[in-house]
Amino acid sequence: MYLSLVTSLFTYICIILAVAFFTLFERKGLSYIQIRKGPNKVGFMGLPQPLADAAKLLTKEVAKPTMANYSPYFVAPVFSFTLALLLWQLYPSMYSTSYFKWGVLFFLCVSSLNVYGTLLAGWASNSKYALLGSLRAIAQTISYEISMALILLFPLFLASSFNFVEIIEDQKGLWFIFLMAPASFLWFVTCIAETNRAPFDFAEGESELVSGFNIEYGSAGFALIFLAEYANILVMSLFSSILFLGGSEMFFFSSDLSMMLKVTFFAFVFIWVRASYPRFRYDLLMGLTWKAFLPTALSLLLLILVFMFTQL
């Protein structure tokens, strides 16, 4: 029990550090894509910049809006951050002390709770901008969760397991992306929408909602929301690499380094997409999942089921 607690605590510390330096990676990536320099003044090549940002945020005065509902207002960031950390319990390492037999179901259950953190933050702030931003984010997240669950069935059918470790082992020699490239593309676009990232960042539409659901947050509350968002990006990159790129499997040998490289690749694609595309119109975003992704996923699932039954 104590070993599990220590390893979980160590994992969470590593995640927070990874998120901190992922923000630097994003700012550097965006700057070079836009042909300019990113953060380069703090320390050597700007490497301590995330630590300086964290110190600035955590030492600021805690904002207490007069009209806010204080209890849910302060609980919402903590709730979102806790859910983001919980998903990292599913990290399929050979050194793990916990073993999730039904890991995919745990992922679906925890990820579906993310909307409540956004809802609490938007409603408890008692601001029109925050409420509108949270409502748009909730509608977007719930809509794309349906497509995500259906697309998730593709690797589950091939692996015949809900366990991420067994899904990785089933991809020895051939990754699932080569068997179902269209489904992997649908999955990644859905991940971008689920994490409210550009070009689907309607929860934080600065041009019309002045930062959206987190407009009333500052200091530690904003830092926790920020950490939760980026931890979710990294965990969705992790699950993408597990489900479609074989996780730690790399040409008939297994290594945590290969998984780290794949996660870094997917995380960079998140940044690349943000730098390349303007924000979608909201009606086009909702139409994309209900009129394109959902029918496509159902049709491909029907084809797979027909193929499986013909092989029996």
From TrEMBL:
Reaction catalysed by this enzyme: a ubiquinone + NADH + 5 H(+)(in) = a ubiquinol + NAD(+) + 4 H(+)(out)
GO process annotations (BP): aerobic respiration
Gene Ontology molecular-function annotations: NADH dehydrogenase (ubiquinone) activity; NADH dehydrogenase activity
Location in the cell: Membrane; Mitochondrion inner membrane
Keyword line: Membrane, Mitochondrion, NAD, Transmembrane, Transmembrane helix, Ubiquinone
Pfam families in UniProt: NADHdh
Transmembrane segments: 6-25, 70-91, 103-125, 146-168, 174-193, 222-245, 251-273, 285-309
GO CC list: mitochondrial inner membrane
Family: Belongs to the complex I subunit 1 family.
Record PANTHER family: NADH DEHYDROGENASE SUBUNIT 1 (PTHR11432), NADH-UBIQUINONE OXIDOREDUCTASE CHAIN 1 (PTHR11432:SF3)
The protein, known as: NADH-ubiquinone oxidoreductase chain 1
